[in-house]
Amino acid sequence: MVRSDIRGLTEAELILACQEIGVPKFRGRQLFHWIQQKAVQNWDEIKNIGKADLIKIQERLILVPLLQLKEQVSQDETRKFLFELADGQSIECVLMDYDRVKSRNRRTVCVSTQVGCPVGCAFCATGLGGWQRNLSSGEIVGQILDITHAMRQEDPDFQVTNVVFMGMGEPLLNYDEVLKGIQILNQEAGQNIGMRRMTISTSGVAPKIRQLAQDNPQVGLAVSLHSANNEIRNDLIPINRRYPLEELMKACQEYTERTNRRITFEVALIAGQATHKAAEEVAQLLQGQLAHVNLIPVNPVVETGMARPDGAEIQGFARVLEQRGIPVSLREEKGTDIDAACGQLRRQWESDEK
Ligand code: SF4
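Above: the input record for the complex with iron/sulfur cluster. Below: its predicted structure, written as tokens.
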């Protein structure tokens, strides 16, 4: 029998698995707490479950933490982790701990949802390597658990408060596993992370935005817009050829109508491209849409040759949106002294290993 990954099971599934192997129901609840709340990494750490029951459980389920290959810590407390999966593939995730430093008590983890990515955005190091496979819900949840475990060595009270599905991969192309991961992370006996504290970021997979509107799991939605011009967006985000702006915006309208939730539109600012005209196009596209724009000056990636615009370009872009009544914020620069752009650490590791 193929053993399931215990970290990819909801509390109800774990209880059911216990019942099926003749282990009392309450053991399932205890196990879920040990795995998901205490983030234990091996069976020996589980203290209140008898040996006989644990042996039966191990015959049915596996507990395999991700192997930490590398960790980089930036001056602003952004920590980037490179993890190896059971099949030898590697993924990145990032802990943004700077809010703790500012006493805002917010610890956000940016998780990966795929190994590599099929979308191939022009500014992204992950897309350069292509797509390998989807992550399972256990591997998605595992990133939060293993970061929690590592951080609790320094701070026993460490708790992740927010999750963004913005790391390697397109989350909506791995829809079922991502939604199951969200369900597990939300469970009260586990990480208990509020639905509204989790955000899915998509490059614009219109049919899945519609599905998300129907399922309405109450999570946040961010759309990587980057340009309001189809020709430019085709080059930046190739999935735009399949779901051009007209179709994307229709799906976004439907999403806000059904959920009454505001969408965050991410706009990467690239030196030389963050022009007044580009800002006007974004403002026009978003007129009438319940929206918020997040401006992100790009992290430089050597392979793509893209650079961060200067302060005047960034401020000018923001001003145009504000004047048109669109709420706008500028993402704080994080981890610029480490390989913080998505996929950079993994590529660096792979080239060092060759
Ligand atoms: S930015 Fe996101 S969607 Fe685009 S290639 Fe990178 S990981 Fe994929």
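Notes for the reader.
Residues 117, 119-121, 124, 126-127, 168-170, 203, 342 surround iron/sulfur cluster (CB under 6 Å).
Residues 137-152 form the longest helix (16 residues).
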